[in-house]
Design brief:
Elements: E1 4-10, H1 24-41, E2 45-58, E3 62-76, E4 90-91, H2 121-124
C-alpha cells in the first residue's frame, strides 16, 4: 500500500517580472511555473487547484466568507520511520482505529473529603 503526504499552499496572486514576459497572463503563468518546478524538484507532484471558503472576522463581531485559491501537491512516503512528518503536512493512513473501551474506574483512596458549602462566617473575619 502506498502512503502519501500532502502539501497545500496558497496559489500565487501576482505574476513575476522577467525579461521578455510582458502580459499579465504570461507573468502569472511564469510565477506558477516557477513554483511548480521548485516543488517538483523536491519530489512533490501537482494534484489540483481548489477554491475553498474561509471565514474572516470583520469589525468586532462580524464575519464574512471569502474564497481562497490553493494548490495541492502530494508525494509518496518511502519509509514511514525515515522522516517525521512536519506539522503542515497531512498524511493519509489506514482507517482510524475504533475508540478504545475503558475499563472499570479505580477505587478512590480512603480518606476524609473536605466539606463543601458556603464559607464559615468566622473565617471571613480573620
Amino acid at each position: 500500500m502506498q502512503r502519501y503526504e500532502f502539501k497545500v499552499i496558497p496559489a500565487p496572486k501576482r505574476g513575476e517580472k522577467a525579461r521578455g514576459v510582458k502580459t499579465t497572463e504570461d507573468r502569472f503563468a511564469l510565477a506558477l511555473t516557477n513554483l511548480m518546478n521548485e516543488l517538483g524538484a523536491e519530489g512533490w507532484d501537482y494534484v489540483r487547484a481548489d477554491s475553498l471558503p474561509c471565514e474572516e472576522r470583520t469589525g468586532f463581531t462580524g464575519t464574512k466568507t471569502t474564497f481562497l485559491n490553493v494548490l495541492v501537491f502530494r508525494r509518496t512516503i518511502l519509509s514511514v520511520t525515515a522522516e517525521a512528518p512536519a506539522s503542515n503536512r497531512l498524511i493519509l493512513q489506514d482507517a482510524v482505529p475504533a475508540t478504545p473501551r475503558l475499563g472499570p474506574a479505580e477505587t478512590p483512596f480512603p480518606g476524609k473529603a473536605p466539606a463543601v458549602g458556603p464559607a464559615k462566617p468566622d473565617l471571613a473575619a480573620e
